[in-house]
Amino acid sequence: MSLPPLASYPALRLRRLRQADWIRRLVRESVLTPADLIWSMVVHEGDGEVPVASMPGVSRLSVKDCAKAAIEARKLGIPAIAIFPHIDGSKKDAAGSLAADPNGVIATVVKAMKDAAPEVGIMCDVALDPFTDHGHDGIIENGKIANDPTIERLVEQALVQAKAGCDILAPSDMMDGRCAALRSALEAEGLQDVMIMSYAAKFASAFYGPYRDAIGSGKLGTLGPSDKKTYQMDSANTEEALREVALDIAEGADMVMVKPGMPYLDIVSRVVEEFHMPTFAFQVSGEYAMIMAAAQNGWIDEERAILESLGAFKRAGAAGIISYFAPRAARMLGA
Ligand code: PBG
Question: Does the interface predicted TM-score (ipTM) exceed 0.90?
Answer without folding.
Answer: yes
